[in-house]
Amino acid sequence: MPLLKKKNNKKIKKINGTNKGNFKKYFLNSVYASAAVILISAAGYFGYKAYNYLFFKKKVFILKKISVSGKGITYREKIKIIKQSMLSKNENLIGVNLKRVSRLIASDRWVKDVTVYKKYPDKIVIVLKKRKTFAMISYKNNLYYISPNGYIIGRADYGGGYKYPVITGLNIDGGDANGYFRKLRKALYFLKIAKSSILSGLIGEVHIERDNGIAVYTGSGIYIKFGVGMYKNKLKTLKQLFYEINRLHIKYKPYINLEYTNEAVIKVNRGSRVLPANYKNNAVSPDAFK
After folding, report:
1. CA nearest 105: which of 136, 80, 133?
2. 216, 165 contact by CB (below 8 A)
3. Which residues touch 166 (CB under 8 Å, ≥6 apart)?
4. Is the pLDDT of residue 61 over 70?
5. Which residue of 122, 168, 196, 202 lies most exposed, with the fewest beta carbons within 10 A?
6. Tell me, which fold does domain 135-289 have in CATH?
7. Using an 8 Å Cβ cutoff, are 211 and 259 in contact?
8. Angle of helix 231-248 versus helix 177-194 axis, rounded to 10
9. Distance separating alpha carbons of residues 30 and 247, to the nearest angstrom
10. pLDDT tens, position by position, 43-56
11. Could you tell me the strand order of the sheet in which 271-275 lies?
């Protein structure tokens, strides 16, 4: 019996010694972990303080230059873009929110695309792509610029000029949105193909008539009815007509009708005359206009 008791005492001592070792190890690990957390927190705190001190209080990166570039950007437009960006010199470059600046600039309907980036130590660069003015539309006694796809850019003024053709007859107040856009697309299509025709640079107004036909007023006051469809062919007919008019020195009133296929009607001094359908292949006699 005494031997058994002796063995049990040894086991109890061994177990107690193991518990004390584990506790000591756990305690030391906790101390190390706490110290590490304290050191990391202190480093972060003092690092943040140093960051603020160096970059904000000491003002290491100060905005001194704002560059605005892009094809066709005028000085007046550059000043407008800088004001719209809400950027100001002597502010900290690090604190500038580029996404916010981009959104502010892109809110201008003239801007098609914008890229903004920082160029350390003291510059912000703004690269713009402008919407191209293609024509103007009339609405409530005002003119508005539109792009080649019909996007309304802004109100026409002397700064932008009035050299673009005006599209009329769209009936914007009619309530028929589909009809409005259908007519606008037709007018824009005609203007695009007319740019490479005899009328290039000569169109003052494109009017959509009640029958959805197209009529054109040139800058010199000539009224040309194109009717509906086959515009490429009719523009070729007009080119040949002008050739014959110049060749024969015909004096005519400022009216040309191209509604009919392969025919052109003009008003000469003695009344209307129709060029024959095959006039493209044959020289027209001056007697045709007497």
Report:
1. 80
2. no
3. 135, 136, 137, 138, 143, 204, 205, 206
4. yes
5. 196
6. Rossmann fold (3.40.50)
7. no
8. 50
9. 105
10. 666 555 555 555 55
11. 152-155, 142-146, 135-139, 166-168, 203-208, 214-218, 223-227, 252-257, 264-268, 271-275
Ordered alpha helix ranges (H), 53-147: 75-85, 98-106
Q: Tell which residue, 75, 82, 89, has the closest CA to residue 108.
A: 82
Contacts of 61 (CB under 8 A, 6+ apart): 55, 92, 93, 94, 120, 121, 122
Do residues 145 and 156 lie in contact, with contact meaning Cβ atoms separated by under 8 Å?
yes
pTM value? 0.64
- Is the bond leading into 121 cis (omega within 30 degrees of zero)? yes
Helix ranges (H only) for 172-222 are 177-194
Per-residue pLDDT tens for 218-242?
A: 888 888 888 888 888 888 888 888 8
Cα 169 off chain centre by: 26
SS3 call for 285 = coil
Q: What is the CATH number of domain 65-130?
A: 3.10.20.310
Strand order in the sheet with 123-130: 65-69, 123-130, 111-119
Predicted confidence (pLDDT) per residue in 104-127, tens digit: 998 888 888 999 998 888 888 999
Query: Which one-letter amino acid corresponds to residue 234?
Result: K
Structure tokens at 213: 């036909």
Within 13 Å and on the Cβ side, how many CA atoms surround 195?
11
Whether 135-289 and 65-130 are alike in CATH topology: the answer is: no
Q: What is the pLDDT of residue 198?
A: 87
